[in-house]
Amino acid sequence: MVTSIPLDTAKELVEAAEERAEEIENPMVITVANDEGNLVAQHRMDDAWLASVSISRNKAYTSAALDTPTHELAEASQPGNSLYGLQTTDEGRIVVFGGGYPLQRDGDVVGAIGVSGGAVEQDRDVAEAGLERWETLVEEGSA
């Protein structure tokens, strides 16, 4: 069984996320990473912010590396909480705000999606479109 995300599957997730970004009229950068957080596919929509290239990649990396959605790290990384300063670790690659989600199959993280280019709520919305496509592919047995 494939333990990571093949390029063809990554392209499907990017396409689903891009469709949602177009619906909300917000250009985004969409990244899909493998289970180690390494790049599988990345797409920058026309007029998406340049800074979002690295931010989306780091959101995918964070989700894969820590097996968690990035928005779930926000509160714990605030001053006085148990993960305070987390975003300053791992050569600055850890992102502690929303837009990154791990992709799971049979309870294992096999990749991640990261989206950047809008408000955090928009990034999450667009990433969730890719996540929903992933879950459909897993249910169908084609992921």
UniProtKB/TrEMBL annotation:
Domain of life per record: Archaea
InterPro entries referenced in this protein's UniProt entry, alphabetically: GlcG_carb_metab_protein (IPR052517), PduO/GlcC-like (IPR005624), PduO/GlcC-like_sf (IPR038084)
SUPFAM superfamilies associated with the record: GlcG-like
Full protein name: Uncharacterized conserved protein GlcG, DUF336 family
Native source organism of the sequence: Halogeometricum limi
